[in-house]
Structure formats: C-alpha cells, structure tokens
Amino acid sequence: MKYRLMLIKVGIKKGLASKYALIFWLFSTLISLTVQYFLWQAVLTGKPTSEFQQTISYLILMQLLTVLFPKTSYEVNDKIRSGNIALDLLKPVAIATQLLWESIGYSIVKFALIGTVDLLICLWLLNFKIALSTILMVLVTGILAYLLYFELELLLGTFSFYTYSIWGISTFKEAILLVLAGNMFPANFYPAVIKRVASFLPFQYSFGAVGMLAQKPSWALFVQVVLIQLFYIILFNVLFKILFKRSVVSTVIQGG
Amino acid sequence: MRYLKLLATYLKINLKAIAIYDLDFYFALAGMIIQNVLNIVALRFIFNIVPRIKGYSFAQLLLTYALATLAFAIFRCFFINALNISDYIHDGRLDTILIKPVNPLFQLVNERVDEDAWGDLIVALLLLIIVDMQLHNPWYITAMFIFISLFTSLIFLGLAVLGNIVALLSNGLANLVETTFDFFDMSKYPLAIYSSTLRLIMTFIFPIGWVASIPQEKIAVEHEWIWLLLIPAACVFFFILIYQLWRVFLQKYQSTGS
Fold it and tell me: Is residue B258 part of a domain?
C-alpha cells in the first residue's frame, strides 16, 4: 500500500508541476463546452428545457471523463521509444502498477481543478437537484470506467513494441470512441442498430454508460453496467498480460 | 529561392521520418478517414432530431464542416509543428534554431509534418466536391473554396503561434496551443448558432468565423466575388499581426539553459 501512495504522490507532483498547463486545459474545456452549449441550444429549440439541461449535463460529464482518463498508451510508447522501459522493468513494481497509480495521482489534480468547475456547471444546470444514490452510482461506475479505459490504453500501448509509434493507433481508437463510446452525444439520439452494437462493445462502458446512469438512474441498470465493466476489465487485463509477456521479450533497447 | 530550396529539403527529411513508422502511418490515415466519416454520421444523427438547425440544412452544415476541415487539414499537413514550439523552448532546442541564419518561425514550422492529416485532407476535399454538387454549386465555387482554404489555414497557424507566445513567457512550461483544436471545433458550425457577442469575437478578435462560415455565406450563397480578395486579405492581415507579436515576445525570450 505504501508504494502505491508514493506513486500517487509522484502523479500529484507531476500534475502540480504543470499547473499553468492545467489552467489552460480548463480554458480549453470551457471553449469546448461553449460550442456544445450553443450547438445543442440550436438543435433542441422548441423542445422542453429539461431535455436541453439533461443533454448538456451529460456532455459535461463525458468531457470530464475524457479529461480525467489517462493517456497511458502514449506513456508506454515514450518508454519504449526512449528505451526507459528497460529501467522500469528492473523495478520491483510491475509497469502496469506504476502507470496506474501515477495516473490516479495525476487525475486527482485534474479533478481538483477542471473537475470541480465541470461538476459545478453540471449541478447548476440541474438546479443542484441530484439524488445521493445517483451520485453513488456515477461514482462507482466512473471509477470502474477509469480502470476499464486504463486497461484499454495499456493494451494499445503494447502495440508500440511493434510499431514504435502510437499516434496512428491512438487516432484509430479515438475514431471508434467518437461514436461507439457515446461521448459525442447521449445514446438515446443514436439509431437503434448502433445502440445495439455499442451495447456489446467495451467502449460505451468507459463513457456513455456512466452518463446514462446519471441521466436515468436505476439499480438494475447499475448492476448490469458494473458487471459488464468488471468483465471487460478482467478480460483486458488478461489480454494485456499475455501480449506484454510476448512483446517485451522481443524488444531490443540500444544501450546508451 | 533559398527558402524554397530549404522547404524542399525539409519536406524530403519529413517524409523519410514518416516512412520509419510506416505501419502507424497507415493506422493514422485510416483513423482520420474513419473519424471524419463518423463525424459526418454523427451530424446526420442530429438531423434525425430536427430538419434544420438555425435555418441550415444538413447539406449546408456539411459544407461548413468541409470548409473548416479543409483549412484545418492544410494547417495540420504543413504547419503542425507550430503546436510544438513550447517543447522546443522547454528542451532548450529553440536556442539552436535562433542561431541559424534562417527565419526561426520558418524553421519551427517546417521541422515536422503531420502523419495523419493527409486522411483529413482527402476526406475534406472529397466532401467539399460532393456537397457542392448536392447544393448545385457550379465547379468554380469549389475551386474558389479550395483557393480560400489555402489562406484560411493561416488563421489556425496564427492561433497556434498566439498560443505559443504564452510558452515564450513561461519558458515552455505552459502554452495555449491546444485551444487551436477548440477553435477548429467552433469553426465547424455556422456563426448563426452562436450568441451575438460570440459572433463578434469570432469575427474580429479570434477570426474563426472567416474559416468557413463567412466564405460559405458570402461566396456560395450571396455570390459576392469581392470576398475572394477580402477573405485572403483578412487571413494574411491576422497572420502578420500575430507574427509581429511573436517577434516582439521572441526578443524577450530567455533560454532555459537546458
């Protein structure tokens, strides 16, 4: 537990080292929210105000998750390209563990600054009316979504052992997430076919499912989402371990 | 002439750099094409809810999207390294750029090209041609849009350089370049959807409205050909203004010593 706390502290320090970057990130987030606000205001003209409020609060939540979730694939890629992975492999803590806890630390800093503003806007839009059970459901599924996304990023990162670059694969992933994860707009706006396809794939359980629970909370949906999230977390973890074991032995780091 | 020769050399080196990561390049190309197609599909979903947005039909909104994407793709294909200036400052690499007898911004911009923007460029061009045909715009309107996009990409370059001025002041610890992507998002929709204050800001302060919304309205709808000169002039003016600002702050630059 002690080393995990240490790694979280490292992540927090990394985040605080770039506090100006975080402030500018917040600025960037607010611009993006402005676009969404005016777009959906134009789209939902003539519809009940509650529908607009629900949609915008959903999109804010999705944006918050996007900001908080780690970009582990890039970190793995950097380690492979620079050769620093050789040093990490020597440490008595698994690389995945190092990356996870450091990411959590960094995400805590991001949450403290960007998350607070995002949540305040979200709550203001909902007139500060939100049930405690909804907060609990969003919190639990949000944490599991974080882990699921982390595992997905780790898995993608291992491709760097073969490609030595992750930019393209990451762009490909973002293209899929764009529609199938539901972070572009609420799933109820999707046609039935896409909704059905997305419900079987893991992407929605990192983003859209959390938003769905925030919009229409129910214990049945909560249990279903949690079980699917757990299934994919375990699956991705096993896949990562197999892939990493195979890839790492074929890696050649030039000394220096 | 000297700068043209340098440009050719930079291009040759950059293409070689891309070739090292060939597999990832194809992933990126496919990723950008898919991302654009999915963006269009998502826009279509919105039009399943309402037939028009602020008077704009699906095809008209696609034209705004195509124009913004084309300008941004040109920016990404040729000027993407403007987003990385803060890294040069942070690592101390800007010092080596400054001692060379070539314009620093020219060197910075040309040191790297984007791997995946070519997918964006292909989609934007195809989309522009298809949408113009759907809207029964004559071929010369499409040609005019392509011509204008070469200049409107300078707006994104200007915004990226502006974002890096913060990096000059903070020794590369912070920058505002990421907002270039947010401004691109704003440019993908007509000015009509924004509030009057934002419309003013987007026309006269951060001229994002000139990227797609104004060209679409003035050329495709109103056929006012004078805007074929006014829009490029506005883009060049904005870029020169930012460039002068960049030069002022570059003179105040203090090396990180790394």
Answer: no
Q: Which residues of B touch A176 (CB under 8 A)?
A: 34
- Is any Cβ of chain B less than 8 angstroms from the Cβ of A150? no
Task: Write the DSSP assignment of A102-165 as a string of letters.
Answer: HHHHHHHHHIIIIIHHHHHHHHHHTTT---HHHHHHHHHHHHHHHHHHHHHHHHHHTTHHHHS-
Domain-embedded: residue B78: yes
Give the C-alpha separation, A148 to A202, whole Å: 8
**Digitized pLDDT (tens) for each residue of chain A, 256 residues in all:** 788 888 899 889 888 877 777 787 888 888 888 888 888 888 888 788 888 888 888 888 888 898 899 988 888 888 888 888 888 888 888 889 999 999 999 999 999 988 888 888 888 877 777 888 888 999 999 999 999 999 999 998 888 888 777 777 777 777 777 777 777 777 677 778 878 888 888 888 888 888 888 888 899 999 999 999 999 999 999 999 999 888 888 777 765 5
Q: Domain tally for chain B?
A: 1
The reply to whether A18 touches chain B by the CB within 8 Å rule is yes
- pLDDT recorded at residue A29: 85
Whether B257 maps to a domain, the answer reads no
Is A168 within 8 Å of B28 when comparing Cβ atoms?
Answer: yes
d(CA A20, CA A105): 17
**Amino acid letter, residue B187:** S
Check if the beta carbon of residue A208 is closer than 8 Å to that of residue A65: no
Domain range annotation of chain A: 2-249
Q: Which amino acid is at A156?
A: L
* Cα gap A180→A194, rounded to integer Å: 8
| DSSP letters for A174-223 | HHHHHHHT--SS-GGGS-HHHHHHHHHSSGGGTTHHHHHHHHS--HHHHH
Q: Which residues pair with B56 in a beta bridge?
A: B53
The C-alpha of A39 sits at a distance from chain B's nearest C-alpha, in angstroms, of 6
Which pLDDT score, from 0 to 100, does residue B155 have?
96
Angle between helical axes of A19-43 and A95-110 (0-180°, round to 10): 70
B229 touches chain A (CB under 8 A): no
> What are the two backbone dihedrals, phi and then psi, of residue B16, each rounded to the nearest 5 degrees?
-65, -40
Residues of chain B in contact with residue A73, where contact means CB-CB under 8 angstroms, are: none
Contacts of A166 in chain B (CB under 8 A): 24
Cα angle for residues A25, A31, A32 (degrees, 5° grid): 90
Domain around B91: 2-251
Pairwise CA distance, residues B200 & B106, whole Å: 31
- Counted residue by residue, chain A has a size of 256
d(CA A209, CA A221): 9
Residues for chain B: how many in total? 258
- State the pLDDT at residue A254: 67
Q: From the CB of residue A189, how many other CB atoms can be counted at a distance below 10 Å?
A: 17
Q: Is residue B256 part of a domain?
A: no
Is the separation of the CB atoms in B82 and B181 below 8 Å? no
Total CB pairs under 8 A between chain A and B: 126
Rounded mean pLDDT, B51-56: 83
